[in-house]
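Module 6 notes. Inverse folding takes a fixed backbone as the condition and produces residue identities as the prediction. Think of it as a translation problem where the source language is geometry and the target language is the twenty amino acids. Below is one complete input and output pair. Work through it position by position during the lab.
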C-alpha cells in the first residue's frame, strides 16, 4: 500500500469535506459482479465489482473514455438503447438480476432514473415537463400536487410557481437541470443516476445542484459520474476510480481500479494509479 505525500490530504484539497456519515454500514441496493460492457466486439469496460449503497451518493471518477458513462448506463439498462451494446457479468437490484429475461427495462428505468450532462427539458411548459414522466407511467390523479411536490423536491418550486406555463427552455441552465431532476423524481424512483450533471453549469448553479443532491440522498440513492474530483470529494460517500489501460494486444479497456469510502480514496488510496490521478499527475 502506498501512502500519500505528507502535504496532500483531503482536508487540504477541500477543508471539511470528509463525509460524516458512517458509510460502510448502509445496505447495498445494487451490486456489480464482474461486469463488462461491450460495444460490438469492443470490450469498453471489463471486470467491474462494486456496490451501490442505499441513500448514499456513489461517485464514478476517472479520465475521459475510461467507461464511467458506460457503467452508469448499464445500471438502468440504458445501454439496451445503444445498438451493439451488451452487458456481461451480473448486476443485481435488491438481489434480483437486472438483466433477467422477465425484467421489464421500462420498469427498471422508472425505479432507476437518469439525469444527463446537458439539461434536456422538453420544449413544453415547466408543468408539462414534470407531468410528462407521470403520464407515460400511467399516473393521472392529483397531477397538480405531484408536480408541485416534484418541483419542491428539486428545490425549484419557489422560482417557478408563478410561471408554470412558461416553457422549460426559458429557464437558466441550472434551473433547467433542476427541472430535469424534478422530472426524474416525479415518478418516485429509488435510484437516480446522474452523468456529469453540472459540467454545463456555472459554479453557483453547480453549488445548488450539489446541495440538492445532498438533500435528495435522504430519500434516494444517487450514483454520479463526475470528472470534477473536488465535486466527488464534496458530495459523495463512496468513490469508484476507473482508468483506461492497454491490454497485451494494445486495446484500451476501462477498469475499476479502486472502490472505497470517499474519504479513504482521497486521503489514503491503496493503489498508486488512484494516488497519481487524485494528485493530478495524469488524467
Ligand atoms: N455507443 C458507443 N459505441 C461504441 N463505443 C462507445 C460508445 N459509447 C462509448 N464508447 C466507447 O467506450 C469507451 C468508454 O466510453 P465512456 O463510457 O463514454 O467513457 P467516459 O464516460 O468515462 O468518458 C470509450 O472508448 C468510448 O469511445
Ligand atoms: Mg461520460
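Target side of the pair, the amino acids:
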Amino acid at each position: 500500500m502506498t501512502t500519500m505525500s505528507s502535504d496532500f490530504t483531503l482536508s487540504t484539497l477541500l477543508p471539511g469535506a470528509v463525509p460524516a456519515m458512517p458509510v460502510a454500514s448502509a445496505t447495498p441496493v445494487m451490486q456489480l459482479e464482474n461486469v463488462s460492457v461491450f460495444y460490438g466486439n469492443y470490450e469498453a469496460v471489463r471486470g467491474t465489482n462494486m456496490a451501490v449503497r442505499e441513500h448514499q451518493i456513489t461517485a464514478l471518477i476517472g479520465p475521459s473514455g475510461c467507461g464511467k458513462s458506460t457503467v452508469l448506463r448499464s445500471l438502468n439498462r440504458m445501454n439496451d438503447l445503444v445498438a451493439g451494446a451488451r452487458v456481461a457479468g451480473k448486476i443485481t437490484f435488491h438481489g434480483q438480476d437486472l438483466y433477467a429475461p422477465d425484467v421489464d427495462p421500462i420498469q427498471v428505468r422508472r425505479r432507476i432514473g437518469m439525469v444527463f450532462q446537458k439539461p434536456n427539458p422538453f420544449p413544453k411548459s415547466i408543468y408539462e415537463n414534470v407531468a410528462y414522466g407521470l403520464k407515460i407511467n400511467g399516473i393521472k390523479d392529483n397531477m397538480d400536487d405531484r408536480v408541485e411536490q416534484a418541483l419542491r423536491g428539486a428545490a425549484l418550486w419557489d422560482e417557478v410557481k408563478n410561471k408554470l406555463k412558461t416553457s422549460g427552455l426559458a429557464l437558466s441552465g441550472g434551473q433547467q437541470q433542476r427541472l430535469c431532476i424534478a422530472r426524474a423524481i416525479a415518478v418516485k424512483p429509488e435510484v437516480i443516476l446522474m452523468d456529469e450533471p453540472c459540467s454545463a453549469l456555472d459554479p453557483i448553479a453547480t453549488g445548488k445542484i450539489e446541495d440538492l443532491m445532498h438533500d435528495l440522498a435522504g430519500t434516494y440513492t444517487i450514483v454520479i459520474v463526475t470528472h470534477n474530483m473536488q465535486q466527488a470529494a464534496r458530495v459523495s460517500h463512496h468513490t469508484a476510480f476507473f482508468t483506461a489501460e492497454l491490454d497485451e494486444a494494445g486495446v484500451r479497456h476501462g477498469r475499476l481500479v479502486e472502490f472505497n469510502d470517499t474519504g479513504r480514496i482521497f486521503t489514503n488510496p491503496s493503489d498508486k494509479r488512484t494516488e497519481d490521478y487524485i494528485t493530478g499527475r495524469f488524467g
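Reference fact for the lab report: Residues 1-22 have pLDDT under 50 and may be disordered.
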